[in-house]
Write a structure and sequence with these properties.
Elements (H helix, E strand, L loop, with lengths): L21 H9 L1 H9 L24 H13 L4 H10 L1 H6 L14 H16 L3 H19 L9 H31 L5 H4 L4 H9 L6 H16 L10 H7 L1
Protein name: Transposase domain
Organism: Tindallia magadiensis
InterPro entries: Transposase_InsH_N (IPR008490)
Length: 252
Amino acid sequence: MAFKSNAVQQINMKDTLLNLPPRVKKFAEKSWAAGFSDIVFPQINEKRFAVLYSDNPASRPNTPVNAIIGALIIKELFSLTDEELLESILCDVRFQVALRTTSFPEQPFSDRTISRFRERLYHYERTTGEDLLKDEMLHLSEAFRKFLKIEPTLKRMDSMMVASSSKKMSRLEILYTCVANLAKQLHQEENVELKQNLQAYLKEEHKNQVIYHRRHEDLDQRLSTTIEDGKQLLKLVSEKQRQTEAYSLLAG
């Protein structure tokens, strides 16, 4: 996937905002979204994140990075799950106004857009030691304070909470995948009897329940639970299974 900067979208005749009923348009333009679009969004430095993508222009272009960063901020601002965030972007014009995506023929987000971006950030930091999202949130802190000042009804929060929450979600996603892969391997190849809490990792819907359908308030608890489940699982591994990739990834 190649990096492509997302210039501020120009309104066209098919722009969602232009085709709204006047009353709805008025509410959208007076909502929190207008302030976010005017104050925070233009300050997002998407070029900071170009290192996460291929420099091959023939590759498929990335989802607009400034829209992803904006979405991560809004997710924290309204305490949304990943699923709720996606639904809001697709169905609520205020979110599209905030992210300046009203002119897109189709909203540039899928159910994996946010998680893939978090994964890129995680692996980049593991390799370089550089926390790109933390650096960007520091850069945006003044704009964010200015935005919250004119929107007193919104939750008071520090911009750094966005970076912290995103990093924890990345850890949870990767740790969960490692635990689930080893649980499935032990169940299929070794016929190991798993306790009920570990059997849950065999079900495809469990990942969504743990990661994408729950709010961030209990994120620390979910991390702790997944870590403990991983420790339980490692105790069940035979000498033969210790040579497998699934074991190495979780044990490492």
